[in-house]
Amino acid sequence: MIGATPAFLRAVGEAGLIVPLRSEGGHRRYSRYQLRIAARARDLVDQGTPIDAACRIVILEDQLEEAQRLNQELGRPATDPNQPSNS
């Protein structure tokens, strides 16, 4: 579905990026979200990023996206990390 091998999906699972559910027969089952995350990691690995680093990057990107979404919901303006603070 995402062009990744079962071995790659196992590797990103071992790196802690995704945790698949298991069928009664013990087969790994991935959600669409997990496959999307694994596809992003695969893109990074294809560009030469080591798998552990790629997984960490994807986790941080996901956390940043979630924080930005929460800030928007709470009506807080997004801050530019390159701008000095007024404190």
What does this structure look like?
This protein has 87 residues and is mainly alpha-helical. It is elongated. It has one domain (6-73): Orthogonal Bundle (Multidrug-efflux Transporter Regulator, Chain: A, Domain 2), CATH 1.10.1660. The longest helix has 23 residues, at 51-73. A two-stranded antiparallel sheet has the order 1-2. The protein has helices at 6-14, 32-46, 51-73, and strands at residues 21-22, 28-29. One of its GO terms (biological process) is regulation of DNA-templated transcription.
What is the fold named in CATH at topology level?
A: Multidrug-efflux Transporter Regulator, Chain: A, Domain 2
Strand order of the largest sheet: 1-2
The CATH C-level class name: Mainly Alpha
Helix share of residues?
A: 40-55%
Q: What is the second-level CATH architecture?
A: Orthogonal Bundle
Q: What does the oligomeric state look like here?
A: single chain
Count up the helices: 3
Structural category is mainly alpha
- Which residue ranges are poorly predicted, with pLDDT under 50 across at least 5 consecutive positions? none
Mean pLDDT: 87
> Which descriptor suits the 3D outline?
elongated
GO molecular function: DNA binding
Protein name: DNA-binding transcriptional MerR regulator
Keywords: DNA-binding
Domain HTH merR-type: 1-60
Keyword list:
87 residues, mainly alpha, Multidrug-efflux Transporter Regulator, Chain: A, Domain 2, two-stranded antiparallel sheet
Concise structural overview:
With 87 residues, the protein is mostly helical. The protein has three helices and two strands. The chain is 54% helix and 5% strand.
